[in-house]
Amino acid sequence: MRCRNCNNNLNLVVCDLVSAPFSNAYLSDSELLLPEIYYPLCVYVCENCWLMQIEDYQKAKEIFGEDYRYYSSYSSVWLRHAEDYVNMIVARLGLTSKSKVMEIASNDGYLLQYFKPLGIPCFGVDPAKGPAQNANKKGIETIVAFFNEDFADELIYTKGLQDLIIGNNVLAHVPDINNFVAGFKKILSPHGTITMEFPHLLELIRDTQFDTIYHEHYFYLSLATVESIFRKHGLRIYNVERFYTHGGSLRIYACHEEDSDNPTKPSVTEMLGKERQEGLFEKQTYMNFQKNIDRIRIQFLQFLLEQRSAGKRVVGYGAAAKGNTLLNYCGIKGTGLIEYVADASPYKQGFSLPGSRIPIVDPQRIFLDKPDFIIIFPWNIRDEITRQLEQVREWGAKFVIPIPELEVIDA
Fold it and tell me: Is residue 210 one of the residues assigned to a domain?
C-alpha cells in the first residue's frame, strides 16, 4: 500500500481493528436477514509525510450515497457551533450581499441556514442525496455532487469565484485529498478565504480516540500534513484555531500563497511546534496506540459482563459511527449486553446498528424502560446528552463514558 498523498510505501501500522462493516450502513429489517460485508480496518502512518490513513476498500460514492443517514441538524451543540461560526466569519471577513459563499459537504443545511437571514448569497455541495434534499426544501441551494478539481471548473462557470469556501469534517472523507484541495485553488477568489475544520490527530493519539477510526474516514490529520498539502497547491494556511468539537478539532484559515492581505499569524507556527513537541513525527508515538486501544476494550467488556451477571439493564444513547467502531472491535453482537441504542434522529430510528445489529429506538423508550446504565457513544457531546436525559436521575440511572477511560457518572 502506498501513501495517497506522497506515494511513499506504507509500512508502519498504527492499529489493526481487524474488520468491520461501514459504520454508517444502518440496517433495515429486511437487511437483517442478509449477510453483511466486513472490510479490513487497519490504520497506517506514512513515515515520509506523516499522513495517517486507511486503505480504500469502497468508493466514496457508495459510502455517501442514497442511504447516508447522518444529518447534522440533530445536535444542538453542533448547531450552536455553526451559528457562532457564521456570525464570526461574516464580521471578520466583512461579508456582504455582494459576497459569494460555498460550503462543501453542507449536509442538511445546518450551517448555511445562518447565512440566509443576513442576505449573503450561499450554496452547498454534498454527495448525500437525502440530507441535500432536506436542505433544498429549506430554501438552501444544495448541489448533489462530489467536489473535486473538475467540478470546480464547472462551478466557476455557473457560480463564479468564491470569497469564502467552508468545509467542516470533510477533509478526512475524500480519498484523493490532493485533487480535492486543487479544486479550492481554482475556485477561490483572489483575496478569498478557505476555512476547514477537522478532528486533530494530536487529540486522537493522546486520548486513544480509536472509535473515530472507520472506513468513511480515509485520513487522520495533523496541521503539518494539511499545511504541506495546501502549500503543494499554492495555498497558504494563515491562521489556526483549536476547538473542542469532535473530541478536539482544528479550524484552519487559508488563502492564495501570494495573497498579502492575510499575513500568517503566530498561531500556525505555534501549533506546528506543539505537534513536533508531542511527537507526531516520531515512529514511537504511534507504536503504543494498539496497546491503549486493547486496554479500553478490556475495560468496556468487563463492565458489560459484570452488569449482565448482576442482572442490570444497559442501553446506549447515540447511534454514532464512533459507537459502531467500538462495538464491532469489542465483538458485541445482538441485545444480550446492550438492549438498544436510542437516537434523536428519526432517520436512524427503526434501523439497527451495522455489525452488532442492536436496534435503534426513540429516546422516549429510555423513560419507559428505566434502565440502570446508559452508555453515551458520542462522548464528544456528553454534556448535551446528559442534559437531555436529566430525568433519568429520578430512578438512579448512571451514565457510562467508554473513552478515553471507562467512566461511570451519576445522572
Answer: yes
Give the CATH number of the domain where residue 239 resides.
3.40.50.150
CA 43 to chain centre: 16
Residues 350-387: tens digit of each pLDDT: 999 999 999 999 999 999 999 999 999 999 999 999 99
Q: Which residue(s) pair with 376 in the sheet? A: 317
As beta bridge partners, residue 53 has 44, 219
Task: For residue range 149-161, list pLDDT tens digits in order.
Answer: 999 999 999 999 9
Question: pTM of the full predicted structure?
Answer: 0.93
Mark whether 83 and 226 lie in a shared domain. Answer: yes
What are the b/e assignments for 202-228, b being 16+ CB within 10 Å? Answer: bbbbebbbbbbbbbbbbbbbbbbbbbb
Q: Pairing mode, if any, of strands 407-410 and 398-401?
A: antiparallel
251 and 318, same structural domain?
A: no
List, in order, residues 6 or more apart from 327 with CB less than 8 Å away: 338, 353, 355, 356, 358
User: How long a stretch of residues is the chain?
Assistant: 411
Using alpha carbons only, give the angle 148, 152, 156 rounded to the nearest 5 degrees.
175
CB atoms within 10 A of CB 105: 22
- Give domain status of residue 383, yes or no: yes
**Mode of pairing for the β-strands spanning 235-243 and 101-104:** unpaired
DSSP 362: -
| Rounded Cα–Cα distance for residues 366 and 317 (Å) | 9
Please give the Cα distance from 342 to 366 (Å, whole number): 8
